[in-house]
Amino acid sequence: MYPVFIHPWSISETEAFNLQQELAKKVITEDQFADIHYVAGVDVAYCSQSDQLIAAVVILHAETLEVVESVVTQDTVQFPYIPGLFSFRELPSIVKAFNLIKTPPQLVVCDGQGIAHPRRFGLASHLGILFDIPTIGCGKTKLIGEFEEPFIQRGNSSSLTDNEEVIGSVLRTQDNIKPIYVSVGHRISLSTACEWILKLSPTYRLPETTRQADQLVRITLLKLQEK
DNA sequence: GCGACAG
DNA sequence: ATCTTGTCGC
């Protein structure tokens, strides 16, 4: 599976900033997809010993949540972690992993924000534009925005806003457990994104896509550190 | 100036 | 994100 749009990754902070402003114009915040058979989960871990990023992409069956394919890649870090420019650090590794995938997904759940971002172009939106595929941003903590605490029962949510603009949802995926921050990545509406996240999180705080990718990345990280 | 700041 | 020690809540 290959990107439909590419741009250089070895760029300055300013260039990355400007590129985000340009690409943000291409983001679609409405449902624009056909049947979803396979859903992808993505996660990245950092190995300080080798200064490498480990990226995992896991493909799940959309109904059974069974893992049908998974790949892992390793890469040296090329871009520092800067809040707001997160995708320029992690996406090169993720793209590399997607290149190896044989079962193209119809939806990707990302570990990071979508348009809940200062320039409305977080990691999930960036990935969505590169592959022109529906993506959902799903963060454990927020980058920007204000919100009220949603009710403690699973399924409740409240709006994440930035200057009156709704940029995402604070969604409770389990009773009494901290909510997660869901935002539109690309080619999906916020309400549909929340429905999918609930469907993908039957028993855990984070969606199964993220959990499976995270598990794979951790195993790989451990093997790497043994050597 | 101070705090906030996806992973 | 990783690393790390102590501390808090169930």
Automatic annotation (TrEMBL):
InterPro entries: Endonuclease-V
Main location: cytoplasm
Subcellular location per the Swiss-Prot or TrEMBL entry: Cytoplasm
One Gene Ontology molecular-function label: deoxyribonuclease V activity
Site (Interaction with target DNA): residue numbering on this chain: 81
Amino acids binding Mg(2+): 43, 111
Keyword set, alphabetical order: Cytoplasm, DNA damage, DNA repair, Endonuclease, Hydrolase, Magnesium, Metal-binding, Nuclease
Reactions mediated catalytically: Endonucleolytic cleavage at apurinic or apyrimidinic sites to products with a 5'-phosphate
Pfam families in alphabetical order: Endonuclease_5
EC numbers, comma separated: 3.1.21.7
Cofactor: Mg(2+)
Function: DNA repair enzyme involved in the repair of deaminated bases. Selectively cleaves double-stranded DNA at the second phosphodiester bond 3' to a deoxyinosine leaving behind the intact lesion on the nicked DNA.
Family membership: Belongs to the endonuclease V family.
UniProt protein name: Endonuclease V
Source organism per UniProt: Paenibacillus arenosi
Chain's gene name: nfi
